[in-house]
């Protein structure tokens, strides 16, 4: 694409970096490991690096241990390096959304995100774009797809109150953040309905052991999708959308974005939805969208809990409803204390229901074995016959 930067390692080895048309960076596993170490050295030295901008709050103290590859998703790769988490972008985000939000929350003294230590931006396309960010590594932490199913299985719903309060405080602190107010949230996000693939392509050696057969789940979806869209349209007609609660939001707020360490919760990953269009990255959205997404994820976490504990699907439905009601009530109460507008409950209901579609699109495109969670949740919610 005409823009390229390179990293010169201590050994004299050079790594060339150039994004493709989808802004993806081609870095091998070996390169990523070396880049993680280079990032720490660059932030600590505070030296100028050609093609990059280096920012650091304080020295990053690592031992002689090697970075440990711990996580990969569609956009990022993450390493543990001593007491730090190093997040390296596999796909560039021209909006710098994550760093901008982290900065705003830090200034507001929002203390439910991992501590930020520094980051490196790559200078490309005439802009300076987040490339690598270093956070504290949260010891003895569990991600939400681990702790939430266990809580639901045990009917322990205390988490709903605390996370609702964290969510409301996050919205208060993000309210003043500049964002693009020209984008019509409903118009743009509704277009996603037309992006669902017509078929499910699974490699012959795709491993879904321990999960319901994705092909069977896709068939259930296909057989009932017309009814789903009809119900979705009916919900849409029950309210008129206003922009009263529009502001910068988390954009992908679900249980998987909440780490738990002992009794404290940490919100992570402010990159926005992997399903919605790039133009939404720097635009405002209703607070209801974060609230609705979290409510949907409670249902999905129940499916995870049922699968892992070999329970009949739907066994946790009453617990799900109690957890959703508790979260919503706590959020509204705390929002009122913080001076935020009341939620449009009909909009919350619509977006919660629509989120199942986004989960299905995500599963078909990226993670077929995940398809069971939204499809079975819809089976339970709409009374579809088991496929």
Features of the shown structure:
387 residues, alpha+beta, 2 domains, 3-stranded antiparallel beta sheet, globular
Structure description:
- The chain has 387 residues and is of the alpha+beta class.
- It has 2 domains: 5-136, no CATH class; 141-382, Aminoglycoside phosphotransferase (APH), C-terminal lobe (Aminoglycoside 3'-phosphotransferase, Chain: A, domain 2, Alpha-Beta Complex), CATH 3.90.1200.
- It contains 10 helices and 13 strands.
- The protein has helices at residues 29-45, 97-107, 144-153, 158-174, 185-190, 214-236, 287-308, 317-338, 345-366, 372-382, and strands at 5-8, 14-17, 52-56, 68-72, 76-81, 84-89, 116-124, 127-136, 141-142, 246-247, 258-261, 264-267, 285-286.
- The strands form 4 sheets. Strands 3-7-8-6-5-4 form a 6-stranded antiparallel β-sheet, with helices on both faces.
- A hairpin with a 2-residue loop joins β11 (258-261) and β12 (264-267).
- The protein is globular.
- The N and C termini lie far apart (47 Å).
- The model has no long low-confidence stretch (mean pLDDT 92).
Task: Please count the helical segments.
Answer: 10
* Main sheet properties: 6 strands, antiparallel
- Global geometry: globular
How far apart are the first and last residues' alpha carbons, in Å? 47 Å
Mean pLDDT: 92
Write down how many β-strands occur, each being a DSSP E stretch of 2 or more residues: 13
CATH class category label of the largest domain: Alpha Beta
The CATH homologous superfamily name of the largest domain equals Aminoglycoside phosphotransferase (APH), C-terminal lobe
Characterize the quaternary organization of these chains: single chain
Main β-sheet, spatial strand arrangement? 3-7-8-6-5-4
Portion in beta strands: 15-25%
Q: What is the helix content?
A: 40-55%
Structure class: alpha+beta
Structural domains: how many:
2
Poorly predicted segments: none
Give me the strand/helix succession.
Answer: EEHEEEEHEEEHHHHEEEEHHHH
CATH architecture of the largest domain: Alpha-Beta Complex
Provide the gyration radius in Å: 21 Å
CATH third-tier fold name of the largest domain: Aminoglycoside 3'-phosphotransferase, Chain: A, domain 2
């Amino acid at each position: 694409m005409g823009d390229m930067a390179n990293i010169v390692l201590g050994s004299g080895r050079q790594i060339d970096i150039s994004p493709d048309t989808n802004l993806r960076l081609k870095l091998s596993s070996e390169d990523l490991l070396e880049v993680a170490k280079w990032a720490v050295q660059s932030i600590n030295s505070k030296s100028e690096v050609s093609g990059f901008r280096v920012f650091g709050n304080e020295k990053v103290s690592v031992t002689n241990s090697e970075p440990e590859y711990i996580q990969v998703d569609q956009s990022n790769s993450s390493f543990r390096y001593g007491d730090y988490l190093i997040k390296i972008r596999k796909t560039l985000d021209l909006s710098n959304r994550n760093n901008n939000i982290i900065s705003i929350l830090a200034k507001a003294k929002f203390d439910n995100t991992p501590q930020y230590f520094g980051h490196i931006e790559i200078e490309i396309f005439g802009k300076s774009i987040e490339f690598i960010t270093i956070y504290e590594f949260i010891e003895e932490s569990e991600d939400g797809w681990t702790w939430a199913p266990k809580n639901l299985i045990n009917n322990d719903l205390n988490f709903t109150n605390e996370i609702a309060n964290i969510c409301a405080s996050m919205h208060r602190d993000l309210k003043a953040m500049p964002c693009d107010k020209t984008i019509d949230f409903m118009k743009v996000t509704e277009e996603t309905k037309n992006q669902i693939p017509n078929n499910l392509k699974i490699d012959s050696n795709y491993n879904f052991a321990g999960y319901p057969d994705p092909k069977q789940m896709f068939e259930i979806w296909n057989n009932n999708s017309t009814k789903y869209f009809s119900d979705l349209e009916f919900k849409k007609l029950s309210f008129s959308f206003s922009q009263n609660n529009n502001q910068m939001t988390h954009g992908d707020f679900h249980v998987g974005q909440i780490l738990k360490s002992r009794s404290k919760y940490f919100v992570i990953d402010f990159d926005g939805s992997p399903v919605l269009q790039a133009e939404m990255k720097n635009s405002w959205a209703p607070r209801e969208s974060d609230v609705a997404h979290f409510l949907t994820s409670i249902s999905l976490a129940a499916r995870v809990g049922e699968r892992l504990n070999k329970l009949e699907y739907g066994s946790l439905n009453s617990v799900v409803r109690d957890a959703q009601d508790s979260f919503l009530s706590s959020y509204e109460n705390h929002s009122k204390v913080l001076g935020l507008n009341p939620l449009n409950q009909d909009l919350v209901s619509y977006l919660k229901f629509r989120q199942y579609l986004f989960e299905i699109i995500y599963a078909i495109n990226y993670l077929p074995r995940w398809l069971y969670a939204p499809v079975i949740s819809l089976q339970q919610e709409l009374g579809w016959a088991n496929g």
